[in-house]
Structure formats: structure tokens, C-alpha cells
Amino acid sequence: VKLTPKVGQTKSISDMLVGVFFEDINYAADGGLYAELIQNRDFEYKLDDKQGHDKDWNEKTAWRMDGSGQFHIDSINPIHPNNKHYARLQGEGIFRNIGYDGIALNKNERYDLSFFGRGTVSKAPKLKIRISTKDGKILDEKSVIVDSKNWKKYQLVLTSNETCKDAVLEFVFTDRQQLDLDLISLFPQHTFKGRKNGLRKDLADAIAALNPRFVRFPGGCLAHGDGIENIYHWSNTVGPLESRMPQRNMWGYHQTVGLGYYEYFQFCEDIGAYAVPVVAAGVPCQNSGAHGHPLGGQQCGVPMEDMDDYIQEVLNLIEWANGDKNSTWGKVRAAAGHPEPFHLKYIGVGNEDLISNVFEERFTMIYNAIRAKYPEIQVIGTAGPFFEGTDYVEGWKIADKLNVPIMDEHYYQTPGWFIHNQDFYDKYDRSKSQVYLGEYAAHIHGRASTLEVALAEAAYLTALERNADIVKMASYAPLLAKDGYTQWRPDLIYFSNTDVNLTPSYYVQQLFGCNNGTEYIPMEASYSNAAVDVQKRVAFSMVKDPKDQSLIVKLVNILPVAANIQLELDQFDLKADTAVVSQLTGKLDSKTAKPEERTETVEKLKHQKLPPYSLTIIRIPPATK
Ligand code: AHR
């Protein structure tokens, strides 16, 4: 293939093309990115949370009692009405939490232990609190006297004297007395950026290393829930932990919302990414009431008489994020530790909803209210579910009618689909709304994360760059999946309590995320092989990075043979003699392929052989003298 850049046809493209999609699916939040080590810390798990109504999933999940002691769940006079349940301990024994299949501790690391306690009789109960191996070896121990008859927060630090991947937290109580405990938390001090109530460092580091220009949250379907009662309400997820409102996760488990809107926004700020919160468009998933809702199976949305309140909730989010610290909601943000605004610019309304009258009516109301009060905020509408051939017609009719700035599209397709539809956005009308490809991934039979899917995504990303004059943003989905709790495959990052495994698709996202540009330079290709099928398997793009003026060439070869590339660079007045080459290659079914980096002379790169099944990124600094 001979590639000739058309410098005269250079166009400006989005500076935020590659971002991440975060949804609490596959235990991505609790037991995942959220660094809390105690499972069911607030005794708010419910039978109803769990798909299949597992009888062991209830307020006592992950807690055990040893010895003659007893515990039951009570709800009289709780810490906060949103956190109704607590544990009442009686007798003497060891009250133990097993974490998420064990608590992973590192030698000499410090852990913040906190809980709310109250003693209910005259003598103050004395507790020993310790971290131990599951065989009973004590890793650290402290004593606390619960000296209050009213709820009081107790805090101490435990330091593990060895590394243990499946420790337990124990409360040893010996006084034959009664004690109430709630919100029992064990947090590593070593979180991402050292934030309190923060994120697991290794996972957050892996996300940050993608150099995402934005983070979308909290879903996915989680944002609109599987019934009206399950819609995600952002305001339930901010403020002191004991006042947040935990909720059933529609993916069949529980969300503490300890990782709530404040933590999402803080993370975005910490990694220099735009926050892109998505709120429900007043309708749940596919507009249908599910999970025992009286409207189960029928189309439904937030009742019209409740829409004013719902719209106000969305407007409050913008005030919370951007308002002055003395405004009603700005005060809540400031009280959490962030007096300065978060500079919210984008808000998604709706997620892959069925485009019906019920949807349109509610979306329009929310959209108009945001436009009227906050015209500076860019609303991202939803194009609805993808049906091959219909190309989101109904969703786009609304976009056209309302002039929605950006439309969110989602599709999960085969590698072949991505390879053969690289012209998907070439056909889009440039005068209409911009596009946010909010969820995409290539799926093969068995849904494995292989180099095959990663290369199809890479080829498609070159096409997204070509179209990044209208495709403003794109995010692979889903992001995280915990080993043993994965409900959806493939995912970008798999993890356990101790390990993080990055997929070939992760490296593709990282290579594109770290090699973004804001100027697209089209390249004309002339092929020695006339077969279109072969031509589509060699994909390419060229961009210029405004930060250092580097010229970046991306080349994808999805053929089983090497591809000869002749890269015309003569029209650039190149200063550098060498370029940095990052290459991801391997067997098509490889799940462990990783990119390698090398330096190459520019001269040599003008005539090169792309290995079979490879993505090559060439970075030539800087483009002009
Ligand atoms: O990414 C997983 C799910 O796929 C999302 O929750 C939903 O929006 C889509 O259907």
C-alpha cells in the first residue's frame, strides 16, 4: 500500500475522542474500583438485590459470628433514615467480615478502620479490633471502648504485619453486653492520589494510563435502571457516607454508592478528564417497568406529575457541580471538600432507551429545561438501541427536531462488522448533531478478549479519527470486570482483589488515547491488491498532536501476511531523523499481547513491512522545523 498524505485537506478533529465508560457492572465499583475492603459494611444488602433471590444474600451477607455471641439486624433509631439497618451484638464472641472473598492486605501498609457504635447499657463495651488471616493469625490489633450510648464514629489505624490476600476483619467482644455497630469500614490509606474514601490505586492507575479525555458514568443501563424505582438518583450518592442511599444494582447485586458523584468528579479532575455524567431521560431501561414493578413489561416513565421534581434533580446536579459554593447545591459540594466548581460541560440524558412517545416527551422536557437554565452545558442525547440497517432513525429525528448537540450511539458487533463498516460515519451529515460513540466493542463467539477483537477495534478507531470532525467522543464498554463476578464479556480490564489484567483491547485504547491529535491529515491509498476485502484489513490514519507538533501515523494490518507500506513523508519538513514506534502484534487468539516500543529511523519507516495481525503507531517529533 502506498500512502500519500493530503496536507492541503487537513481538518480539525475532536481533542477528546478517546475516553472511558464506567459502569458498575461485573463488580466494577464495590469490591472493585472503590477501595473499601469491607463487604456489606452498612448491613443494607437485601434479598431483593440479588438476581435469583439467593437466600444467603441479605443484611447479614459477608458477616459471621463465632463463639456464643449472637447478632441480629435491627432498625430502631438508625444512624440515618437512609441507612436503616445495623448489627446488634450480644453475648461474647468474634464478629467477622470476610470482605469480597477475603480482604487483600499488604505488609506494612496502613488501613483506616472506622465504624459507628453505641453501647446500650451502663458499662461501656470494650472491643478488640483486628485484622487476621482466615486461620486466626493476628496481623494487627487495637482496642476501643465504645463509650457512647448514642451513635458515635470511632476511628483507628491498623497496619498489617504481613501480606495476605484473604484476611478477615474481626471485632472481639468479651463484655456480656449489648452493642450496636454500623458502617464498618476498612480503607487502605494508599488509595489513588491518597484520596479518603478513594479508589483502588492499581485499578485507577490503569484507567489513568489510558489518558482518557473524559469519563462517562454511572452507566450504561445502571443510569436508568430496570424500573422507575431503580433509576439512579445522583443526589442519593453525595454527602456523608451514612446518609447516602444504597440501592439494588440492576446487574443483580448491591451498590453502596460509596463511590458516588463526588468521587467520580474528583477522579475526573485528578486525571484531567471531562466528567460526563449520564442521567435517566425520565424512563427506565427500554421504558419498561421490571423487577416486580406494577408496570412490569409495559411502557412506563416517571409519572408526569413527578416530572418537575425529576427535572429539578437534573438541574440541581449542574448547580452542585458548577454552582458557587454558597448556592444551595454548591454548598453540598463545598462541604464535601471541593469549594471550587468542577466545571461540568457535558451531561448525558438517557442511555440506549427505546425511542417511544413516553421517552420523547420526557427527554424533551429535560432537554429544554437544561437549555433554558444552563445554555452552556452540552446535552448528549441517546440514539436508542442499534438495529442493523435502521441506523437510529427514530432517535435522530428527535436530535434534528431539538438540535441536540451530541448524540450517543452504542453497538457491540463482530470484528467483521467493524472491519466492513469503517465508512459508518463517512456517510453522516456534517450539518447535524455530533456523535458520541458511548459504547462499543468487537465480540467474537465465546466473547474472549483477544488480539482479533482488539485489531478490529483499532481499525475502527482509525475510521473514528477520520470522522472526528463529527465523532466527538468514543468509549469502549464495559471497562472493568472482577474475576468470578463477570456478567458481561468482553471487558477492557479484568481484576481480582490483588491483580489487574490488561487486555489487547486495553492496549489499543491506550495507544490511541496517548497518541491523539487535533488535526487529521487524510492519506490517499493506492493498493497493489485490488480486493476490497483485503484493502479493508489494512487501516490507517495520520494526525498531528498540538502539544508537541508530533506527526502520528497509525497502521493496522488484520491480514495473516505482512503488508508492505510505502509512506510518503517528503512533503513534511521533518526535523527528526528518528521516530518512536509502538507495535502490538501476536497470534489472533492471543489474550496477552502487549505493545512494544522501539526507535526507528524515519528513512526506514518510509518503506516498512507491517507484521501480520498488528497495530503500529509511529510518532515523529515534531512535524515541522
Ligand atoms: O455495557 C454493558 C451494557 O450494554 C450497558 O449497560 C448498556 O447501555 C448496553 O446495553
UniProtKB/TrEMBL annotation:
Organism: Sphingobacterium puteale
Gene Ontology biological-process annotations: L-arabinose metabolic process
TM regions (residue ranges): none
Residue span(s) of domain Alpha-L-arabinofuranosidase C-terminal: 438-614
Family the UniProt entry places it in: Belongs to the glycosyl hydrolase 51 family.
Main enzyme class: hydrolase
Listed name of the protein: non-reducing end alpha-L-arabinofuranosidase
Catalytic reaction list: Hydrolysis of terminal non-reducing alpha-L-arabinofuranoside residues in alpha-L-arabinosides
GO MF assignments: alpha-L-arabinofuranosidase activity
Alphabetical keyword list: Hydrolase, Signal
Known EC number: 3.2.1.55
